[in-house]
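User: Hello! I'm new to structural biology and keep hearing that structure can be predicted from sequence alone. Could you demonstrate with Biotin carboxyl carrier protein of acetyl-CoA carboxylase? Please show me the input and the output so I can see what each looks like.

Assistant: Of course. The first part below is the input, the amino acid sequence of Biotin carboxyl carrier protein of acetyl-CoA carboxylase. The second part is the output, the predicted structure written as tokens.
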Amino acid sequence: MKEEAIRKYAGLMKELGLTGLEVKEDGYELRLEYGNKGVKAPETYVIPETKEVEKPATEAKKEEGIVISSPMVGVFYAASAENAEPFVHVGSNVKKGDTLCLIEAMKLMNEITAEEDGTILEIYASNGSIVEFGAPLFRIGR
């Protein structure tokens, strides 16, 4: 392989920010690597130990009940139409199977229903927001 071809590949590596390049051409095999020269060593971070803190009684109560999570990625809708009343509010009593919200995924509206009877204690998602798979939507207390 000619020197000008090697220089061309080295220039290409520099231009593209590559640290290594392997070329097989016309029966020749070439491997180029940039060494550590001028490369800053990675920084080391020390993470301090953390101690688990007891939660106040008010926070412990907040976690009571069951959490309804999103079964899919999509857009959360609290009501069936833009100007319609939301399906539920904080404090609403629901029965197993009642519609809590809609999630639009791939142009399909999917009803999310209550898994058991109870009262809506918290609504985590806001109308029109995108929710991820497994994201908490509601907390229902018994």
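User: So the tokens describe the shape?

Assistant: Right, they're a compact way of writing down the 3D structure. Reading them back into a model, for example: The chain has two helices and ten strands.
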